[in-house]
Amino acid sequence: SQKIEQNSEALNIQEGKTATLTCNYTNYSPAYLQWYRQDPGRGPVFLLLIRENEKEKRKERLKVTFDTTLKQSLFHITASQPADSATYLCALDMRGNTPLVFGKGTRLSVIA
Amino acid sequence: DTGVSQNPRHKITKRGQNVTFRCDPISEHNRLYWYRQTLGQGPEFLTYFQNEAQLEKSRLLSDRFSAERPKGSFSTLEIQRTEQGDSAMYLCASSPARTGGAEQYFGPGTRLTVT
Q1: pLDDT in tens, B15-31
Q2: Looking at beta carbons, which residues of chain A come within 8 Å of B105?
Q3: I need a labelling partner for A28 at 20 to 30 A (CA). Which of A69, B1, B15, B34 fits?
């Protein structure tokens, strides 16, 4: 069956360090992969999308990589700040305009 | 504010009652999605519309759930005969035609508590 794993339920890092979150999937061939941020009691906020033919994408302090051979995406936040503390969700889009499938998320805490 | 809005933000109901939630998407977005999210889980797809057409429903969606988007603008999600297991955050999202369903913009959600 299809499965998405965000391998850390929670991640604590020191302010200023780079946070790296992992999203692994099995039995999918997604057209693209997305990352969202979710704060408590709020809806997810779209951050980045990376297509199957892209290896890396950047936006300000954020970087996403996508390895379709390993079936893995890495999400990096450089120079992390306490304001980056949130839950980060990865989501896969299956082919044919089907809805997104979300992982459970990783709760990131950046400690000052 | 031109984002996705949802009403009500919170709803407490007794088991067996019917509830209805409303979602107003970003005005130029033709796709509208409903998700359900429980604590510690990611959003789980329920159904989606392209304009007024309901194109897909999750197999997990009980026949107690129904959604409409009558004029291709706002949408409603109704749950009949609520059960305690329906307690969750109900999220609505919209996306523009140009993205084919990617880059979904979520509303703040409606938190349902069934007692």
Answers
A1: 999 999 999 999 989 99
A2: 46
A3: B34
